[in-house]
Amino acid sequence: MNDLDSQRLSGSLKLRGYRRVDDERKADLILLNTCSIREKAENKVYSRLGELRELKRDNVQIGVCGCVAQQEGERILARAPWVDFVMGPGNVGYLEQVLAGGKTIAIDFPEDRRYDYLTVDRPSATKAQVTIIEGCNKNCTFCIVPTTRGREVSRAFEDVLDEVRAAVASGRVEIELLGQTVNAYRCPASGRDFGALLSAVAEIEHVRRLRFMTSHPAEVNDSMIAAMRDHPNISRYLHLPVQSGSSKILRRMKRLYTREKYVEIIGRIRAAIPEIHFSTDIIVGFPGETEEDFQESLRLIEEVQYGSLFAFKYSPRPGTPAPRIGPPVDDDVATERLTRLFELHERIKQQRLQSYRGRILPVLVEGPSKHDPAMLSGRTDDNFVVNFVADPATPLGSMLGVRIDQAQHHTLRGEAVA
Ligand code: SAM
What we know:
Blueprint: H1 2-15, E1 29-34, H2 39-52, E2 61-65, H3 66-72, H4 74-79, E3 85-87, H5 95-99, E4 105-106, E5 127-131, E6 133-134, H6 145-149, E7 153-154, H7 157-169, E8 174-178, H8 194-202, E9 209-213, H9 222-230, E10 237-239, H10 247-253, H11 259-272, E11 277-284, H12 291-304, E12 308-313, H13 331-355, E13 360-368, E14 376-379, E15 385-389, E16 399-407, E17 412-417
Parallel strand pairs: 1-2, 2-3, 3-4, 5-8, 8-9, 10-11, 11-12, 15-17
Antiparallel strand pairs: 6-7, 13-14, 13-16, 14-15, 16-17
Helix pairs in contact: 8-9, 12-13
The structure holds S-adenosylmethionine (SAM).
S-adenosylmethionine binds next to strand 11.
């Protein structure tokens, strides 16, 4: 989502005659788009601002955008007075006013979230990310997102469809719908839900692959599952963050489901779409997490066999209740748990990658391979990169069958088949 905000900022600047330079010393506007999901990301912003200090001139503007801007507000100007403005995620559509000097601290959430999708500066020729819902109404006790991105606001159904049609017309045949809780989408005017939107987007001509993230397990419903089941161009790969395998920890996190409920949801989706794969996010070292709680996360990873997994050490965030919920887990213990978790998942991932050898997988062509320009590169439905031999004149965005002959550490290698 931060990436897409950067694409929107970049597009709106290009429209105003700015152009990108490859060296920040040549820039007359420097924007840092920031993430505050964990403390490490936040610290990086201040060290980067320290480096940028020497570039500040009267004709050089420096702005801090994104979630750290939202969270820190005036404190950024106090700590780094060479910064010209601070602009939160609610103001991405209002960059023009901010640059004109009207707002030094733009951290409100305007009623009208202006969203000019025609100017988004999309880096990929084949893929477009499309926000359908901003903000988050869940109150997970570890998470800063509801503070930094505000309450949920869904876009109008027809607006989303218009954006997707425009993206497809420009060759972006892979669409990724975005939201902090993407499946909480509800059209403000008609009440149509996420499943209805998924179906409508999947039915737009030339949408070859449709992805979405992030789904909250408690928002998975029959209409979402039916839309996925009935549209083969919707990816059979679902990111469904669980955060922990222990019901005790899930309750403390206020995730709104138990381990058993989560497993039941996975089972319902698998019953409707047997070929589905899952990925997830896990937090280790949440306050009060015991070795037994952690073991439950490991057992869940074994049980679900996630294709990809994003795991993080718990990081206390300002204003969130989690730090008061249980005793902190020693940092060395959390680090060691994270290592064990990644070791387990690495084995599962390697088994999956090896199981693809000899199989023909549908791959969406994205461009020449980075390592060998004589080969093409694309992704499988479950988002693994495949480098493969094919006719170099294959149009970008084509869907090809690729016979996989090698599984490397993170990527696959193969040859296109007729
Ligand atoms: N909205 C999504 C959800 O609720 O599942 C994910 C949002 S967040 C940008 C991505 C991931 O960061 C979360 O799924 C969680 O695993 C991780 N995360 C969020 N807050 C964290 C914290 N305080 N410490 C460590 N990881 C955190």
